[in-house]
Amino acid sequence: MNIQSNRRYDSVANAAESLILPDSLISVKNMETRRIRCYAALAGADVIAIGLGFLFANLLYLGTWSTLHGTTMLSVLLPIYLWVAAINGSYNGAVLRDPRVGAFTAIRAIAFAAAAMLIIAYSFKVGAAFSRFVFWTGTLSAVGLIIGERLILGRIMLRRLGGTPFSTVVVVDGIAWTAPSHGMILDAAQIGFDPATEDPLEYHRLAKLVAHADRVVIACRDDRVVAWAHVLKSMAVDGEILTPEVDRIGMIGVSHYHNHRTLVVSAGPLHLRDRIMKRLFDIVVSAIALLLLSPLLVGIAIAIRLESPGAVLFRQQRIGRDNTLFMMLKFRSMFDDQCDATASVLTTRSDSRVTRIGQFIRRNSIDELPQLINVLRGDMSMVGPRPHALSARAAEQLYWEIDARYRHRHAVKPGVTGLAQVRGFRGATVLTADLTNRLSSDLEYLRDWSMGKDMWILFRTIFVIRHDNAF
């Protein structure tokens, strides 16, 4: 039965991978990349504008572009400006949507940078090398150039982005809907998705269609609201529902789409800047860990192969971000012909399927180390909710049957370690409490995420690598 089930998972997953997307959805995948390019272009234009402002001040003051007065000020002011602009919203979606907002936030950033430079000049008693004429002329010239550059370049970018920097997909489920000319519309019946489903493969199919969008709007009947709300909360997108129902779905805001009021029920916990920081952290940490641990990894691989025939690595389909499926890697800890690819049978203490090497690496969490490769690939993160297998159960119930919030934990990438693990919630899930304790920690992690918390969890993991519940 397990073999048949696994074949079904593989065949349906492969079918989902080969879905032919509507032409209107192709652009959905590119919007974030296009926004990043726009931010980079704006940053480059800001640097040029500020540079021209101070070089022009040099020219007016001393008759040459390249004197130390202006260039020294530039070397101090530019890094401060770019840092302030990065954190005050000078490079975000609101700026692309309205160039006037971009001009205003850029002016605030350069005003702060100029004030900081004055404080630095005063603190270090810079005298002859600091020309007040160059400073004020350069700053005011830079402000004027930035305003012009932001307004002109911003409007050009907005046109090239098709009038909006964000992609929106509307999923219509069982109601009449007149599509706007610029809308990307999916009919739930045509794509074969029922929000009431518990099948993880159906979630995988939906994610392949809409998870790259910035915004997913559901137009549905009132009796489908709660089901769609659970679906949206399990994805890292801004999810909204076109319906008068409010009280039962945990609305977090109100918005509009094509002259219709929408209820905002989800907002991906990690947006662009957070995801970039987390991804860079993952790449650096996993690469360093793989390099430092390579002798141990090679030694364990040799020991596994010497003890029993079969592959060194065990591959198992797990549920990842946005409910998409991926192959998670572990060191094989069971005899090859007794490996449980669907995790349908819980591992117990002194389990006869587990080899001697397997007992050692499981008890010390060494079997999880190949997941560093998953992190480098981008399937996983160093810190996040642990990924679960499709057939994982607690008290003879599938995880998503126990708590309706279970899929909400998939709004971020799964982690090698997580908040639940450092609190000791790991091992076999025999009782429903074994799952709900972990789920509460996972949802708390999503709610309170910060880069500092990721580093704290990673540090705390050192003290729980060996655990009584690991067997």
What is the overall silhouette?
A: globular
CA distance, first residue to last residue: 25 Å
Please count the beta strands (DSSP E, at least 2 residues each).
12
Classify the secondary structure makeup into a structural class.
alpha/beta
Task: Identify the strand order in the major beta sheet.
Answer: 2-1-3-4-6-5
What keywords describe this structure?
single chain; 471 residues; alpha/beta; 6-stranded mixed sheet; two-stranded antiparallel ribbon; 17 helices; 51% helix; disordered N terminus
Give me a quick take on this structure:
Helices cover 51% and strands 12% of the residues. By secondary structure, the protein is α/β, with parallel strands linked by helices.
Please, could you describe this protein's structure?
With 471 residues, the protein is an alpha/beta fold. The chain contains 17 helices and twelve strands. The protein has a six-stranded mixed beta sheet. A two-stranded antiparallel ribbon has the order 7-8. Strands 9-12 form a two-stranded parallel ribbon. The radius of gyration is 27 Å and the shape is globular. The relative contact order is 0.08.
Describe the SSE topology:
Blueprint: H1 2-17, H2 23-26, H3 31-62, H4 68-87, H5 93-97, H6 99-123, H7 132-160, E1 168-173, E2 184-187, H8 188-191, H9 200-210, E3 215-220, H10 225-233, E4 238-242, E5 253-257, E6 260-266, H11 272-307, E7 313-319, E8 325-331, H12 356-363, H13 371-377, E9 381-383, E10 393-394, E11 397-398, H14 399-402, E12 415-417, H15 419-422, H16 432-447, H17 451-461
Parallel strand pairs: 1-2, 1-3, 3-4, 9-12
Antiparallel strand pairs: 4-6, 5-6, 7-8, 10-11
